[in-house]
Amino acid sequence: MGRMTRRTTRTPTAIALAAAVLTLAPLLLAGCTSETRQAEAREAAYLTGGDPERGRAIMRPYGCASCHTIPGVPGADAMVGPPLTGFAERAYVAGVLPNSPANLVRWTRHPRQVDSLTAMPDMGVGERDARDIAAYLYTLH
Q1: CATH code assigned to 14-137
Q2: Domain residue ranges in the chain
Q3: What are 38-58's pLDDT values in tens digits?
């Protein structure tokens, strides 16, 4: 027995609608992405008491980019320490502390007090700067 196939006819209206959807979809998704990023930044600021944009900006002066790959930080593509991509989704900070804002701030300020064998140096990060850096890291999904 032969196979029956269904033939569809595309009307000019259907073609125009499909073209419009394909043209507008990236723009709509970009708007959602921007809104999502803003919501994530607000949540990160609330959780840490820090400023994510300031945190992103101060990571280079503190030397974070010398050892880590950090999305959104120009030139931060080093492979000495672990990449910080997807940091907000991690279960642990430095593999030893549950991932919480307080623990991340503690680690950022005094890594050797948390783990005396870590290769991460104490960079003299103050409380406010540590909160800002933490806020930025919590925007990385």
Answers
A1: 2.60.40.420
A2: 14-137
A3: 999 999 999 999 999 999 999
